[in-house]
Specification:
The complex is a heterodimer of chains A (237) and B (424). In chain A, 39% of the residues lie in helices and 22% in strands. By secondary structure, chain A is α/β, with parallel strands linked by helices. Chain A is globular and about 50 Å long. Chain A has one domain (46-73, 92-233): Rossmann fold, CATH 3.40.50.300. Chain A contains eight helices and nine strands. In chain A, the strands form two sheets. In chain A, strands 6-7-8-3-9 form a five-stranded parallel β-sheet, sandwiched between helices. Chain B has two domains: 6-49 and 288-418, no CATH class; 58-275, no CATH class. Chain B contains 13 helices and 15 strands. In chain B, strands 1, 3, 4, 7, 8, 9, 10, 11, 12, 14 and 15 form an eleven-stranded mixed β-sheet that branches. In chain B, helix 2 (18-50) runs antiparallel to helix 13 (387-418) and helix 10 (289-320) packs antiparallel against helix 12. With 424 residues, chain B is of the alpha+beta class. The chains are: A alpha/beta (237), B alpha+beta (424).
Chain lengths: 237, 424
C-alpha cells in the first residue's frame, strides 16, 4: 500500500471494528424533502454502552431506524458491525437485523397472543445465526437469560398478565437472545417509574456485558446519562 | 422447545381474534351453502322438469297452445280447453304408425290433487327420467269401477293406506271440493312408488270410473236426489266412454313423429293439437331461464358479500395490528413475511369457510333433497357434488384468496411506511 492510502486503511480498520460507523450521513424522506437527520462522523466501538439524547422530534427514532436498516440515508456511509449497510438490499438488511441486532421499543414490545416464552423465542424464528448462537439447549439459555433479567418465573404467562416493567424486561430478553452484536433501545424506560429505570438498565448491562453486546440507548431523560460509557446528542440545535 | 414458526404465529393470531374469525368463517360458509344449494336445486329442478315424461313422442289434446297442453297434461297445471271424442282417439290409436297410446282424462280433484282418468296402458307405458317405469309401493291398479291408485305424495300427505275410502270432488280444486261425489266413494287399491315428479301428486282412476262419476251429470247440472244414480246400480259393462281430455302417443319409428304431428294438427274431423313434449319442455325451461339466472346471480352476490365481510374484518383489525407488525419488523421479518401472514390468514379463513359450508351443505343435502322431492316434486340428482359444484368451490376459494390480497397488500404498505415507529 502506498503511504497516501494510510489514512484510508485506518478508516477501513475503524469501520470494520466499530459497532456503528457513520460518515456524512444525511437522511430525508424522498427527494427534495428537507433533511431530517445529519450526522458528520460517528464511531461507536463494540461493547460500548452509548447514550443518545435529544428532545422529542429531533430524529432519535429516525437515527435508530437508519442503524436498524429499516430506513436508508440518501447519502453518506453507514457501517454496522463491520458491514456496509448501504451495500445490502432491503431483504438483506432485514436478515442482517434479524441476525445481528436486537430492538427494544418504548412500550408494547410483546405480541399479546403469545406467551412470554414464545415472545422471546420469536427472535430465533427469523435468525438462523441467533439460533445457532443459542445452541442446542434452548431451554437452559432461555432460563439463564431470563434469570439475569428477573423474569424467569414468568415464562409461561400470557403477556397481558405482566406489569409494564416486566414486559420491558421480557422485551430485553428477546432483544438479547442469540447474542446479537448490537442492541437498539428506543426509550425503553420511559414507561417505567424512576426506581425501576436504573434497575432495568443495570440488568440490561449485566447480560449485555456477558455477551459483549454493544448498547445504543436513546432517551430524552438525561438523568440516565451517567450510567453510560459515552453519550451524544441528536438534533440539538 | 416452544419455538413457533410463522404459521403458528398466524394461527395464534387468528385464535386471538376467534370471535371475528369464527363469524367470518360462518358468513363464508353460509354463502357457500346458499350457492351450492341454489345450484343443486336448479340442477335437480331442470332434471325433474325435463324428465317428467319420456318415451312419449306426441301429446295430443283439443286445439290449444302447445304450452297449455303440456302444462295441463304433464304438470297438472291449468285446465284443458276442450275434450276430444273417443272416436278420434280410436282413429289414432289404431293408426298404422302408432305403437301405443295412453288415454289421459282430467276433470276431478281430491283435496288439491288432480284425478287422472286413464287405463292399464298408463302404468305399462309411461316412462319418466330416461325410462323408469312406474312402480307400485303397494297394491296394484285394478281395471274396475270405484278403485283408485294414489301417487306417492298424495298417499303420504293425506296418510292414506290401501283400502282407504276416497271421495273425489268435481273440478280440480285446491283444498276441499265444493261439490263432492260423496255418493260414489273410491277405494284405494294401489299406491305408487315416489318418482320425484308431478306423477306423485295425482290420483289415478279408470276412464270408466270417471265416466261413471259423471253419469248422472249428463245435463250438466249437479244431480238432485231424483236424478242421482246410486253407485251400485252402475255396471262397468253399461258404460261407454264418449270423450277424453288428451292422450300420449308413441310412434313405431321416431321418423314418423313429425309427419304424424302434422297429420294430427290438420285432422279434419276434429280440431286437435299435437306437441312433442321434449321440444316444448326445453322451450319452457328456457323461458324460466331468467329465474335460474337471477337465483344464480343472487347467490354469487351473497358469496361476494361473505368475502367482503372477511376483507372488512381483516382491514378493520389491521390498524390495531400495526404495532404487532412493527415488532415483527424489528425482529427482522421483511415486509414479505407480514404480507404472507395476512395472506395466509385470509386463505385459511376462506378455506375453512368453504370447508364448513361443504360439510354443512352435505349434511343438509340429504335432508333437503328428500323434503324437496316429497313436497315440491323437485328431484335433486343423486350426485351431491357435480362438476359445476367443483367449479364453484374452486372459484370461490380463488375469490376469497384474491380478496385476501387487499388487506395483505395494505399491511405490506403499512409496514414499509411505518418502519419501526408506529404512531397510532
Amino acid at each position: 500500500m502506498s503511504p497516501t492510502n494510510s489514512n484510508h486503511t485506518e478508516s477501513q480498520r475503524s469501520r470494520a471494528d466499530s459497532a456503528v460507523w457513520i460518515e456524512d450521513l444525511d437522511f430525508s424522506y424522498g427527494e427534495n424533502q428537507p433533511s431530517i437527520l445529519k450526522i458528520g462522523k460517528l464511531s461507536i466501538l463494540q461493547g460500548q454502552r452509548v447514550f443518545v439524547f435529544g428532545p422529542s422530534g429531533s430524529g432519535k427514532s429516525t437515527f435508530l431506524e437508519l442503524v436498524a436498516g429499516v430506513l436508508t440515508p440518501k447519502k453518506g456511509a453507514l457501517w454496522i458491525l463491520g458491514q456496509d449497510l448501504l451495500k445490502l438490499s432491503a431483504s438483506e438488511r432485514d436478515q442482517f437485523r434479524a441476525d445481528h441486532l436486537g430492538y427494544i421499543f418504548q412500550s408494547f414490545n410483546l405480541i399479546p397472543y403469545l406467551t412470554v416464552r414464545e415472545n422471546i423465542l420469536l427472535a430465533l424464528n427469523v435468525s438462523p445465526r441467533k439460533k445457532k448462537n443459542v445452541g442446542p439447549d434452548v431451554g437452559a439459555t432461555l432460563l439463564c437469560l431470563t434469570q439475569g433479567l428477573g423474569v424467569d418465573q414468568l415464562l409461561d404467562r400470557p403477556v397481558n398478565q405482566l406489569s409494564v416493567g416486566q414486559q420491558q424486561r421480557v422485551a430485553a430478553a428477546r432483544a438479547l437472545i442469540g447474542s446479537p452484536g448490537l442492541i437498539l433501545a428506543d426509550e425503553p424506560t420511559s414507561a417505567l417509574d424512576f426506581d425501576h429505570r436504573e434497575k432495568f438498565i443495570q440488568s440490561l448491562f449485566t447480560v449485555a456485558e456477558a455477551q459483549k453486546t454493544t448498547i445504543l440507548f436513546v432517551s430524552h431523560d438525561r438523568t440516565l446519562e451517567k450510567l453510560f460509557d459515552f453519550s451524544f446528542g441528536i438534533g440539538a440545535k | 422447545m416452544n419455538q413457533l414458526g410463522w404459521r403458528q404465529v398466524a394461527l395464534k393470531s387468528i385464535w386471538n381474534r376467534r370471535l371475528t374469525s369464527a363469524l367470518t368463517i360462518i358468513s363464508i360458509a353460509l354463502s357457500i351453502i346458499l350457492l351450492l344449494t341454489v345450484n343443486q336445486v336448479r340442477r335437480g329442478g331442470e332434471e325433474g322438469f325435463t324428465q317428467a315424461i319420456s318415451q312419449v313422442d306426441l301429446i295430443v289434446g283439443a286445439r290449444s297452445g302447445p304450452l297449455n297442453l303440456l302444462l295441463y297434461t304433464v304438470f297438472n297445471m291449468g285446465s284443458p280447453s276442450n275434450n276430444i271424442s273417443w272416436k278420434t282417439y280410436e282413429h289414432f290409436n289404431s293408426h298404422p304408425s302408432v305403437e301405443w297410446t295412453i288415454p289421459y282424462s282430467l276433470g276431478d280433484g281430491h283435496r288439491g290433487f288432480r284425478v287422472v282418468g286413464t287405463d292399464a296402458r298408463f302404468f305399462q307405458h309411461y316412462r319418466f327420467r330416461g325410462g323408469q317405469q312406474l312402480q307400485f309401493a303397494s297394491g296394484k291398479y285394478k281395471e274396475e269401477l270405484w278403485s283408485v291408485v294414489l301417487g306417492a305424495t298424495v298417499a303420504k300427505k293425506l296418510s292414506y293406506a290401501l283400502d282407504h275410502k276416497v271421495v273425489l270432488a268435481h273440478g280440480a280444486t285446491t283444498g276441499d271440493g265444493v261439490i263432492k261425489h260423496d255418493d260414489k266413494p273410491f277405494q284405494v287399491t294401489g299406491i305408487l312408488e315416489s318418482t320425484g315428479t308431478v306423477l306423485d301428486h295425482a290420483l289415478y282412476i279408470s276412464l270408466e270410473s270417471m265416466e261413471a262419476l259423471h253419469l248422472d251429470w249428463q245435463s250438466g247440472a249437479v244431480p238432485t236426489a231424483a236424478t242421482a244414480i246410486p253407485a251400485d246400480q252402475i255396471k262397468k259393462e253399461d258404460l261407454k266412454v264418449e270423450q277424453l281430455t288428451s292422450f300420449f302417443l308413441r310412434t313405431k319409428s321416431r321418423i314418423e313423429t313429425l309427419r304424424l304431428q302434422r297429420e294430427i294438427n290438420t285432422y279434419q274431423e276434429e280440431a286437435l293439437s299435437a306437441i312433442i313434449p321434449g321440444v316444448v319442455l326445453s322451450e319452457l325451461w328456457r323461458g324460466l331461464d331468467y329465474v335460474d339466472k337471477s337465483l344464480k346471480a343472487i347467490s354469487w352476490i351473497v358469496v361476494l358479500v361473505g368475502f367482503v365481510g372477511m376483507m372488512i374484518a381483516l382491514l378493520a383489525g389491521l390498524n390495531e395490528r400495526r404495532r404487532e407488525m412493527a415488532v415483527f419488523r424489528a425482529l427482522g421479518a421483511g415486509p414479505r413475511v407480514i404480507f404472507g401472514l395476512l395472506f395466509f390468514e385470509s386463505t385459511l379463513l376462506t378455506l375453512m369457510g368453504v370447508l364448513l359450508g361443504l360439510v354443512i351443505q352435505g349434511l343438509v343435502f340429504v335432508l333437503v333433497s328428500q323434503l324437496l322431492s316429497i313436497h315440491f316434486g323437485i328431484y335433486l340428482s343423486a350426485a351431491w357434488i357435480s362438476w359445476s359444484e367443483m367449479l364453484i368451490i374452486i372459484f370461490t376459494s380463488l375469490i376469497g384468496s384474491l380478496m385476501g390480497l387487499i388487506p395483505a397488500l395494505r399491511a405490506y404498505r403499512y409496514t414499509l411506511k411505518d418502519g419501526l415507529s408506529v404512531s397510532i
